[in-house]
Amino acid sequence: MSVAMREAFGKKLVELGATCPELVVLDADVSSSTKSGLFGNAYPDRFFNIGVAEANMVDIAAGMATAGLRPVVNAFSIFLALKATDQIRNTLCYNNLPVVIAGAYGGLSDSFDGASHQSICDIAIMRAMPNMQVIVPSDARQAELALEYALKQDGPVFIRLNRNPMPDLPASDEIGTVVCSEGSDVTIAANGITASFANEAAALLAKEGIKAEVLSVPMVKPLDVESIKKSVAKTGKLLCVEEHALMGGFSSAVSEAFMKQGICCIFDAIGIEDRFTESGPYEPLLAKYGISAENIANRAKALCK
Amino acid sequence: MNTGVTQLLSDPERKFNAKELAALAAYFRVVMFDTLHDRGTGHWGGAASSAELTTSLYFNRMNIKTDESKWEDRDRLILSKGHASMNLYTILANRGFFPTEELATFRKLDSRLQGHPCMKKLPGVDMSTGALGHGISIGLGMAMAAKVTNRSFWTYVLVGEGCLNEGQSWEAIMSAAKFKPKNFVLMVDYNKVQLDGTEEEIMPLGSLSDKLKSFGWNVCPHAYDGNNTEDVLSSYDWMDQDDVWPKAVIYDTIKGKGISFTEGKSSWHGAVIDDDSYAKGIVELKKDLQNKEAVL
To answer: Domain map of chain B by residue range?
Structure first.
């Protein structure tokens, strides 16, 4: 198991704070959960706890960005996406301000807190906003790379983070698609932490003689269509997997791009159906809503029939 | 259009006195009413309400460079009541940020003069606004950034009642009292009329001064007359008298100020200025301008 993304992200903020005096970090009274408090301990003059007021926090960050600072705002992803939507769209995105939105506890990862805290429509909301880039890292290393990338951009970037330690994937030097395993029968394009389940699924499929190619695809916007296209050219079959509602998220983005480019393939998508989720231990919860190695393997196998 | 106060505009560095500011605001009302009538769209009521407030800031108070609109040490104004865009545009154009002829493109396709101000399109606009309630948070962020970067620029946020209806404003008011950034001023254009009716009918603010004080702000001891430039300049004296932050100034103003039949009328918040109303209204505005130029 790797360290949790939030742990890695918090430490990376501290590291980058040493060489980037413009870096300021804001949190909405969850800094011990998001781990942005690590930055606060290291640089108290550049850390601002705004209280439970996500909308206010995002606009404060926007004002700071106009005056030359590089703010990173931290809160639970669902509350950034829902309580600060107006501020993210009308202030950050409209003005293309370089603010990093670090959405903690993405997907179902705040598993015990239940549906009110589980963030399964954040990607759909964020990707609908012009100028916004959307990154869903799949492990701790990708979370660090996403932050380094985001701080080099001229506009807003949403990074959706996961609460819990998840297995490490093959390492890469920059944020982008990682080919976790090569295969010629079916492509599994996995977004965020679903990549580790997709890797397990590939192992299950291999036992049955099915060679799955697993892609970990963190960049939802701009979407890395080329990597997926290249794999599908080989396999002719695509299974998208995401820890998000099936409407408007990663699978939707892939479908839109494929339809527009006239790419035909046998297709399926695993994500949260049109329903609310619930409390429970993380992995059994994911499994109940379709995100498990077994389900991914079964659905991939069905595409190969 | 006239030969009085506009002659003074040829000096881009000029710091206007109270009488000159009054004449200038009267002139800007004429330009705003003309332009809004010509374009058949836009918000007269709130633009007329804040004319003296914005004129005094840009022609007496703010430290700005019109040839360097992104100068990092400039003072900032956030027009949180972004529907008063025609007021801001008229001032920025006449201050020299862009040609006054461009005012005629207001709300046209491809214009830099959007319905509500856009900082990415038009020089001099410090923040895009329109959706109400954002300004105080954004201004607070600017003022906090000044502290982090050791700069001393001022940040002014101009709000109306509509902004103060929004919950975000009170989040921002609460948090400003925590961070207490220097040179951060909330200016309330308190005309007591909203879009749908009076403040009392729509959402009474009660004692605004007491509310702000209880949130920990340094609030002006009495409301100033925001349509009287002498009084507006007095409010600057109050702003400069101590180092207790954040500061809030409440200005009593009149929505639709300058034309008898638009004053205090919610129906003139965003109504199209028809030809009859224009013909009657412009006479009143020009008379006011003449009176104010006569005493220069």
So the answer is: 15-294
Question: In terms of CA atoms, which chain A residue is nearest residue B131?
Answer: A90
Among the residues of chain B, which ranges form H helices?
18-39, 45-49, 51-56, 85-95, 135-148, 161-165, 167-179, 199-202, 208-214, 229-240, 275-294
Q: How many CA atoms lie within 13 A of B213 on its CB side?
A: 10
All residues of chain A having their beta carbon less than 8 Å from the beta carbon of residue B144 are 48, 60, 63-64
> Residue type for A73, please?
V
Give the residue on B whose Cα is nearest the Cα of A69: B145
Kindly give, in sequence order, each residue whose CB lies less than 8 Å from that of residue B212, ignoring residues fewer than 6 positions away. Answer: B173, B186, B219, B248
Distance CA A97, CA A88 (A): 10
Fold annotation for B15-294: Rossmann fold (3.40.50)
* pLDDT given for residue B12 in this prediction: 81
Closest by Cα among A156, A174, A8 to A95: A156
State the amino acid at position A103 in one-letter form.
G
What is the spatial distance between Cα A189 and Cα A270, in angstroms, rounded to a whole number? 10
Q: Do A94 and B120 touch (CB under 8 A)?
A: yes
* Residue A101: φ, ψ to 5°: -105, 110
- Counting one residue from A and one from B, how many pairs have CB atoms under 8 Å apart? 100
Residues A124-150: pLDDT tens digits?
A: 999 999 999 999 999 999 999 999 999
B245 vs B140: CA distance, rounded Å: 11
This prediction has a pTM of 0.97
Cβ contact, residue pair A64, B179, below 8 Å: no
Calculate the average pLDDT of chain B. 96
Domains along chain A?
5-160 (3.40.50.970), 178-303 (3.40.50.920)
Question: CA-CA distance, B150 to B140, in Å (whole number)?
Answer: 15
pLDDT < 50 positions in chain A = none
SS3 A158: strand
Q: Who contacts A55 (Cβ-Cβ below 8 Å, separation ≥6)?
A: A83, A84, A86, A87, B137, B168, B171
Two tokens, residue B241? 């008298």
Query: Nearest-CA distance from A126 to chain B in Å?
Result: 18
A44 touches chain B (CB under 8 A): no
Interface list for B 138-197 with A (CB within 8 A):
138-146, 148-149, 151, 155, 168, 171-172, 174-175, 178-179
Q: How far apart, in whole angstroms, are the C-alpha atoms of residue B5 and residue B25?
A: 10
Token duo for residue A240: 């998208």
